[in-house]
């Protein structure tokens, strides 16, 4: 855990108004944005790096379609402040089509703490890539949220199940899974 506290970057992935759209179905962890806000407060107090990703979908049917400015805007509770970095993307990884990797490396940031929406999409993909690119990767389980999905057989899976399955798949192999209070405790 000592790797976490060498001024890690806080990644806030796709916490955008379009995720409030009924298109996504049921969601778990309705307090995720509050947990992200808690972490943002800590990072801002310490003047550590905060990086946002903003998903700008190329699919006109998506609530995050790039031409729907009000839907692609960040949720007010976690809105970036002037000077905080925003990486815009149109795929599930914050590392693809952005300068995220080069930004982290040029600023000698070796650890990242990942938060955001949604666990089964951008959070999972970015976490896997972060680890594969050699960053010490921490995922904050209560600062992320998942949506229900229907699988290839037509079976519906609850957002809580999806969230837990994704965290289980990422745990140890790709990231250290922590809760917000554990991160705050380690920072104190």
Spell out the key features of this protein.
Isochorismatase-like_sf, Isochorismatase-like_hydrls, 188 residues, 6 helices, Rossmann fold
Summarize this structure briefly.
This protein is of the alpha/beta class. It is built from 6 helices and 8 strands. The strands form 2 sheets. The protein has a 6-stranded parallel β-sheet with strand order 3-2-1-4-5-8, sandwiched between helices.
Any chance you could write out the topology, listing elements then pairs?
Blueprint: E1 9-13, H1 32-46, E2 50-55, H2 69-72, E3 85-89, H3 100-106, E4 111-117, H4 119-132, E5 136-145, E6 149-150, E7 156-157, H5 159-170, E8 176-178, H6 180-187
Parallel strand pairs: 1-2, 1-4, 2-3, 4-5, 5-8
Antiparallel strand pairs: 6-7
Keywords: Hydrolase
Family: Belongs to the isochorismatase family.
Domain Isochorismatase-like: 9-181
Look at the helices and sheets and give the structural class. alpha/beta
Which strand order do you get reading across the main beta sheet?
3-2-1-4-5-8
CATH architecture: 3-Layer(aba) Sandwich
Mean pLDDT: 95
In percent terms, what proportion of residues is strand? Answer: 15-25%
| Count of individual domains | 1
CATH class: Alpha Beta
Largest β sheet strand count, sense and barrel closure: 6 strands, parallel
The CATH H-level superfamily is Isochorismatase-like
The run of helices and strands is EHEHEHEHEEEHEH
InterPro entries: Isochorismatase-like_dom, Isochorismatase-like_hydrls, Isochorismatase-like_sf
Family: Belongs to the isochorismatase family.
Domain Isochorismatase-like: 9-181
Protein name: Isochorismatase family protein
